[in-house]
Amino acid sequence: MYLWLIPIFPLLGFLLNGLFGRKMPKSMINLFAIGSVTLSFAWAVKTLVGLGPLEAKYIEHYFTWIQSGPLQINIDFAVDRLTAVMLMVVTGVGLLIHIYAVGYMADDDGYYRFFSYLNLFMFFMLVLVLAQNFLLLFVGWEGVGLCSYLLIGYYFLEQFATTAGNKAFIVNRIGDFGFSLAMFLIFRHFGTLDFTKVFDAAKSMPSETSYGTLTIICLLLLVGAAGKSAQIPLYVWLPDAMAGPTPVSALIHAATMVTAGVYMTARSAAFFTHAPIAMDWVAIIGLATAVLAATIGLAQTDIKKVFAYSTVSQLGYMFVGLGVGAFSAGIFHLMTHAFFKALLFLGAGAVIHGLHGEQDLRQMGGLFKHMKITAITLLCASFAISGFPFTSGFFSKDAILVAAYARAPWMYWVGVLTAGMTAFYVFRAWFLAFLGDYRGHAHPHESPLVMTGPLMLLAGLSIFGGFINIPHWLEPMFAEKPENQTLAWISAGIGIAGILLAYVFYVAKRGLADSFAKAMNGFYTLVFNKYYVDEFYNAVVVRPLVAISRIVLWRGVDAGLIDGTVNGVGARSRGVGSILRLLQSGNIRTYAAWVVLGSIVALIAIGFVGGSR
Amino acid sequence: MTLLDLVIFLPLAAFLLILFLPKEHVDGIRRFSLVASIAIFVASLGLIGPYWFGNPGKFVFETDLPWINSPAIRYHVAIDGISLWLLLLTTLLTPLCVLVSWRSVQKRVKEFFAFLLLLEFGLIGVFCAFDLFLFFVFWEVSLVPMYFLIGVWGHERRIYAAVKFFVYTMAGSMLMLVGIIYIYNQAGTFDYAKIMAGLQNGSIASSYQEQLFLFLAFFIAFAIKVPIFPLHTWLPDAHVEAPTAGSVMLASVMLKMGTYGLLRFCVPMFPVAARNCSGWIVTLAIIGIIYGALVAMVQPNMKKLVAYSSVSHLGFVVLGIFSFTQQGFDGAVYQMLNHGVSTGALFIMVGFLYERRHSLEIDAYGGVATPAPRLATVFMITMLASIGLPMLNNFVGEFLVLQGTALVNFRWAIFAAIGVILSACYMLWLYQRVFFGKASGEVSGLRDLDLREYAISVPLIILMVWMGTFTQSFIPSISTSTAVILGPVDAKRDVHVRNATHGALRAQQQQGVLPAKESVDAR
Fold first, then answer.
1. Which of these, A434, A310, A304, lies nearest to A358 by C-alpha position?
2. pLDDT of B509
3. Is residue B76 helix, strand or coil?
4. Cβ-based neighbour number of residue A485 at 10 Å
5. Which one, of A495, A345, A369, lies nearest residue A425 by Cα?
6. Is the pLDDT of residue B209 over 80?
7. CA angle A396, A495, A507 (to 5 degrees)
8. Closest C-alpha among B65, B76, B218 to residue B134
C-alpha cells in the first residue's frame, strides 16, 4: 500500500520549498506546498478505501532503525481504525488550512519559509499517527514540537514570539521527559517497543490496584500527554503559542498537534485499562483543566486567546473521556473539535485579516455587515462547540459526559457546568465581534474566496460532522459506552442557557457585563490574570534555577571552589611555577627541545625499570 | 604494510613535508594542507570496507612489529568497530579544520598547519595503538600540538589556558604512565592482548588492591581528558582561548581520547574494580550532565556555553559506559561520534560568527538571522542535533545510553534525562539571543555564508541527518566490538530477577528476549 508515501509527500514539499523557495515565485511555492498535502490526502483516501473495513491492523515494515543487543527499533508504519480517523483529520483539515493560508499569508515576506515549516509539520504529524512503535511515535511527537516552535516564533523579529516559541519547546520537553521515561520502563518490562507486542503482553496482565509498573508507565505517559496536549500543570505554553500566524494556531495548536496526547493515550488504551488509578488521574486532570481554562476564557479580550483557552478546556474534555474509559468518545470529540476549533481560529484569522491585524475584541463590533460569510461560518462553529442539538459538538461532547456520569455523577455535573461556560464565552466573543457598533479604526472587509472557501467547508463539517459515527467505527478497538438521552439533553440545555446569558450580557443589556465584573472584582482580576500561574512558575522555578546556576554553581563552585583550589595549589608550589615559567619562553625551538628531552627522560625511565627486573 | 599504517603515517609525512615548504608561500601551504588532509580522509574511508562488506568482529588491519627491543615496545596497531569510527571522525574533521583556518589564521601559517597535521597523527595513533607504551606516546604526541595551537594562535589569555590544559592533562598522564610501568614490571610486555590475558589469569596485579589502584591511575588520566566533573575546569578556558580549529579538534576528538580510554583500557583491564566503582562514577557523570547544562545556561560567552554543554554531553558517554549494558556501550560510542560531529559543528559556526563580528559575547549579537539567513539555518540544524531531536544524530546516542541505564537503575535514568530538558533551555536561549530579534548596528551588516563555509557546514549537516536516520550504517560494527568488551562486565550477569511480577514477563526472560533484571523500583 506504500503507506510511506503519505508522509513523504509533505517532506518533499518541505525540502523543495525550504531549499529553493526563496527564489521561486509564489505560484511554485503554492504548487509544492498545497500539491504535496493534496497528494498525501489523496493517497490516504486511496489507502483507506483499498484497505476496506480494517478488521485487523495493517502493518508495513521498512527498515531497522536501531539495533543494539535485544533492543530493536524498526521503521514500521501501520493503519488501524484509530489511525484511519487521525489520517483523515490530519490530511483533510490540514489541506483546508494550507489552502486558507495562501490567502492569509499572501503579503508575508517569509512565504516560502512558512509553507516549508507547515509541510514539515504535516510530515511529522503523519509519522506520529502512522508509527507502529513508541520510539517512532516519539519521532513524530518531537518533530511536531519542533515545527510548533518554529512557527510560534515565525515572526522572529518580535521578542514575545520567540520567547513563546522557547516556552512551548521547553514545556514540551518536560512532557517528553515523562514520555521517554515511560518508554524506558516499557522496554525494560516488555523487551520491545512495538505496539502489537507490547499491548498484547499488557492485555494478559491483571489490572493493577496499586502503583505498580503499568500504573507508573501510564502516569509517565500522562506527563507526556499533558505537555503536548496542554493539560495542568503544563498547559501554560499553549495560550502564548498564539503569537504564531493564525493558520498555525488553527492547524497545530487546535486541530492536530495538541490532540497528539489524546491520540497517544487512546493508542495506549491497553495499558490504561489495566491501570485504573492512572485512569482516574487522567480524568481528574482533564476535568480540572477543562474548568480552569474555561474560567480564564470568560475574561480574555484577545479573540485568539479566548479560543486558545477554549482549546485547553476542550482538550480537558477529551481527557475526561479517556479517563472514564470512553476512548472512542475522546477520539470522536478530537475529530469534531478539529472541525469547529479549526473553523473558530480560521474565522478569527479572517476577522484579524479584515481588520489589518487587530485582535482585541474591544476594538471590534458590528462586523456582521462587513464580513457575512466569516460571521455565519463562525456562528456555526460557535453552535457546534456549545453542543447545540444535532451539531457535531452535541454528539461528541455528550458521549463524553454520559460516560463520565457512568463513572461518577459529579464529574458529569462539573462537565455540564463547564459546557455552559464554554457556550457563554464563545458567544461572548461572537457577539462582541459581529454585533453592536464598530468600535475600531480599521476598514473592515471580507476575505477572498481562498480563505472563505475552507471556512464554508469546515462550517459544514462542524454542523454535520457529528453524524460520522466514530464510536461505532472504533467499537472493535474500544468498547462502546451506554447512551443516555436525558443526560444529553440536560447538557445541551445548559449550553443553550450559556448562549442566552451571553446574549443578555453583551447584546440585550450592555454594561451588565462590566457591572458584573466590578461586583466580582477579586475573582475577575484573578481570572483576567490567568490565576498568575505564569508568574508563579517564573518565581518558583525559572528565576531560582537561573540564579542558582549563575551564583552558586558557576561563580561559586566552578570559579570559586574548583578553580580556586587548583590555582591555589599552583600558587603555593613555587617549584612548579618556576618550571612553568621556563616552559613559557615563547620560543618554538625551546618547546621542541622540551618535548625531546621529556621523551628521552621517559624512555630512560622505562629502560631503567625494564632493566631492573 | 596495511592501509591502516598508511593512514597513520600520512599525516606525519605531510607534517614533515610542510616543514620543508617556504613559509612565505602561505597559500601554497594552505592548499597543500587541504589536499593532504583530504587525501588522508579518502584513504581512511577504505578502512570501512571490511565492516560494510561483512562484519569481522575482530581486529582488522593489524600490524605488530618490534619498535624498541628493551624495553619491549612494539608498534602494534589495529582497529575494531570502535576505533574505526573515531579514526574516521579525526580524518574527516582535519580537512574541515584546514578550511576553517583558511583566513582566520594569519600569523605563522606554516607552523599552524604543521601542528594541525601533527595533531592528526597523534590522534589517529591513539585510537589504533594496542601497545600500552605506543598508546602513551601517541597520547603525548597529540598533547603537544594542541598546547601550541592554544598557546600561540589563541586569544588574549591563551598562555594561561594552554598551561592549564597542559598541566591538567600532564598530571593525569603521569599517573597513567606510572600505571603502565607498573604493569610492565609485572608482565614484561606492553602488549594489550597479553596484558589482558595476564590480568585475567592473575599473573598481573593479582590482588584486588593492586587492580583498584591501577584502575584509578588510568581512570583519573582519562577522567581529566573527558572531562568528568569536577576535573573539567580546564576545558572552558582552553576552548575560549583556542582558535576555532583548536576548539573543534579539542571538543570533537581529544575529549574522546578520554572516553575511548575508559572503554578500551579501564573497563576491560580492570573489570571488577570498574564494576565496584561504577556507583560513584555514575554519580559524577550525572552531576556532570546536570551541572554542565545549568552552568552552560548562564554563560555570557558562546564558546564557554558550548564548552560546558560538552561537559554535559560527555556525561552521557560516561554514564553509558558505566551502565555496563549493550545499549549503554553502543550509545556511549555513538554519542562520542555524535558529539564530535555536532559540537564540532557548533564550534565551527561560533567561529563563523567570530570572524564576522570579532566577539564571542552573546550580548554583542542579536538578529543575525536577518542579514545571514543561511548561517541561521545551518546553526539551527546543528543546534537541533545537539539538543537531541529525533532523526538527527544525538538522539540515537542519548536514547541508547538512557535506555541502557534504565535497564540497570531507573533512578539514574530519571536524573540523567533531566539533562535532556536542560539542553533545550540553554541552546534555545542562546539561539534566540544571537539570531532572533531585530538586527542593529554592526550586526545588520554581517555577511552570509560563502562557498568555503558551505563546504564546511554541508557535509556535517548531511552527516547529522545520516547518523540520525540510517543508524544501522554504524551501529552493527560498533555493537560487535562493544559486545566483546561487555562480556566480562555485563550488568545482567549479577543482577537477579528479584520479583518478576508476571508470568509473561518471566517467560520472556527465560526465552532470552529480555535481559534478566530487577523489577521496577521507580516508586
1. A304
2. 42
3. strand
4. 9
5. A495
6. yes
7. 135
8. B76
Residue B67 backbone phi and psi in degrees, to 5: -110, -55
Q: Determine the residue type at A394.
A: F
Q: Summarize pLDDT for A121-165 with one digit per residue, the tens.
A: 999 999 999 999 999 999 999 999 999 999 999 999 999 999 999
Angle (CA) B211 B215 B216, round 5°: 120
Split at pLDDT 50, 70, 90, the class of A565 is confident
Assess A580–B contact: CB distance below 8 Å, yes or no.
yes
Closest CB to B514 among A70, A165, A548: A70
Q: Are B336 and B226 in contact (CB under 8 A)?
A: no
A553/B291 Cβ within 8 A: yes
pLDDT at B205 over 80: no
Q: What is the pLDDT of residues B437-494, one digit of tens each?
A: 998 888 888 999 999 999 999 999 999 999 999 999 999 999 989 988 888 887 775 5
Instruction: Locate the DSSP E strands across B80-183.
Output: none
Q: Check whether B523 has a pLDDT greater than 60.
A: no
A173·B522 Cβ contact <8 A:
no
A:158-187 residues touching chain B, CB 8 A cutoff: 159, 162-163, 165-166, 169-170, 173-174, 176-177, 180-181, 183-185, 187
According to DSSP, the residues that pair with B79 across neighbouring strands are B60
Strands (E), A495-609: none
Cα A48 from Cα A50, distance rounded (Å) = 5
- Give A82 or A519, the one with higher predicted confidence: A82
Identity at B344, one-letter amino acid code: G
Question: Cβ–Cβ of B520/A595 closer than 8 Å?
Answer: no
CA–CA separation, A14 vs A21, rounded Å? 9
CA distance A233 to chain B (A): 16
Q: Say how far apart CA A438 and CA A358 lie, in whole Å.
A: 13
First to last CA, chain B: 59
Cell of A511: 454594561
- Would you say the C-alpha torsion B441, B444, B449, B452 has a positive or negative sign? negative
State how beta strands B60-68 and B73-79 pair.
antiparallel
Which residues of A are less than 8 Å from B177 in CB distance? 602
